[in-house]
Amino acid sequence: QVQLVESGGGLVQPGGSLRLSCAASGSIFSISDMGWHRQAPGKERELVAGITSGGRTNYAEFVKGRFTISRDNVKNTVTLQMNSLKPEDTAVYYCNARIWLNTFRNQNSWGQGTQVTVSS
Prior knowledge:
Layout: E1 3-7, E2 10-12, E3 18-25, E4 30-39, E5 46-51, E6 57-59, E7 67-72, E8 77-82, E9 91-100, E10 106-110, E11 114-118
Parallel strand pairs: 2-11
Antiparallel strand pairs: 1-3, 3-8, 4-5, 4-9, 5-6, 7-8, 9-10, 9-11
């Protein structure tokens, strides 16, 4: 009964910005890693950015300097601030989280995805 729900996707012009948010809900004991992946039509899903429970981040090379990932461990949310967007950023963006249901069981959960389209 654990769910991830993304929001904030939409249409933006090249060079513009979008802010994606993801909220986890349900019977959650804790959340370790959280992150964002994306999938463009005809391509495989790829990592965009990740963040640990302690706030350590990692980014794909193609978004470094443009995107920023952050999280709120109280609200169980993760955010992706996307700046200087390019047409090649167009994809469905998925929220991902490793959610612990108790001290010994966890699951790798995915949101339903939110569409980001960068076009003039």
